[in-house]
Amino acid sequence: MKYSVTEKDAGKLLLTYLKGTLGLSRAEIIALKKREGGILLNGSPVTVRAVLSAGDELLLDRCDREEELNECLVKRELPLSFLYEDDDLIAVNKPAGMPTHPSHGHFDDTLANGLAYVFSQKGIPFVFRAVNRLDRDTSGVVLVAKNRGAAFRMAEQIAGKKIDKRYLAVAEGRIFSPFTVTAPIKRQQESIILRTVCRAGEGQEAETEFFPLGQRENFTLLEAHPLTGRTHQIRVHLASVGHPLCGDTLYGGGTLRIGRQALHCRSLTFSLPAGERITVTAPLPEDMKALAVMAGYSENEPKGNE
């Protein structure tokens, strides 16, 4: 990846530029230093003690090596809709029915397989590093890091609760006021898949904010804002208060006009290395849109505490 040094960064040590301006982690800088041709300034190898001048051309070899690749990841052309891409990140609008990554029974029909195919067509080595994951039948934004450094930085944002995730959900029952569910979640005994709320100390802490956006008959459109990232968190929290997701047969929801759990990751907000906050938004798929519109949903109305 090529970077041009501007007047603003002239006079800085290369190490300062790598850490401060580009936001590279210590681990990635060490990896670049060890890699032959990993850091080139105006075409020549340099140390991180080099002093930069305006107009310098910096070339960093941040690509994954063939030996680092997921060798068993099958490359398969799949219908993918892209929402955002830069040198470090790519965001996809994952459709319902597509797993995020391979698992038993799903070796070649996942988002990871589809992205592996896309990058192979470009001749770019690819390692699947999902920043967030969605259940197979949950649609919406999935953010993927394109290199190790980006994955590390995004992991830091997740740990610091600096990635804001917003979902649209259709729940059974009529809800008129915002509410928050704060309840630990653990795996149900003797089940690999099912989760349940539990007493403090028995599971992982979990908290979700919910904001009603509209009601119709016996269902409510909600914006869900998970403050933690536990498996099935939104689904389990809604079921625990008697309002399971429509279509979520795993947690007690009916099949009201939709053949899967009515959950869509509408947006992710996160920081780029330079500090800029951006929001990536995924449009509603047709099955979710039909329910949302019936409940009075408008794309332009304010959501939650945004």
Give your account of this protein's structure.
It is a single chain. This protein has 306 residues and is α+β, with helices and mostly antiparallel strands. It folds into three domains: 59 residues, Structural Genomics Hypothetical 15.5 Kd Protein In mrcA-pckA Intergenic Region, Chain A; 94 residues, Pseudouridine synthase (2-Layer Sandwich); 131 residues, 2-Layer Sandwich (Pseudouridine synthase). Helices cover 19% and strands 27% of the residues. It is built from six helices and 16 strands. Strands 5, 6, 7, 8, 9, 10, 13, 14, 15 and 16 form a ten-stranded mixed sheet that branches. A four-stranded antiparallel sheet has the order 1-4-2-3, with no helix packed on it. A two-stranded antiparallel sheet has the order 11-12. Strand 5 and strand 6 form a beta hairpin. The longest helix has 12 residues. It is elongated, with a radius of gyration of 22 Å. 35% of the residues are buried. The C terminus is likely disordered.
Number of strands: 16
Count structural domains: 3
Contiguous runs where pLDDT drops below 50 for at least 5 residues: 301-306
Distance between the termini: 35 Å
Secondary-structure map:
Elements: E1 2-4, H1 14-21, H2 26-34, E2 39-41, E3 44-45, E4 57-60, E5 82-85, E6 89-94, H3 111-121, E7 129-130, E8 139-145, H4 148-159, E9 164-172, E10 179-182, E11 185-187, E12 195-197, E13 207-216, E14 219-226, H5 233-240, E15 263-271, E16 277-281, H6 286-294
Parallel strand pairs: 8-15
Antiparallel strand pairs: 1-4, 2-3, 2-4, 5-6, 6-8, 7-8, 9-14, 9-15, 10-13, 11-12, 13-14, 15-16
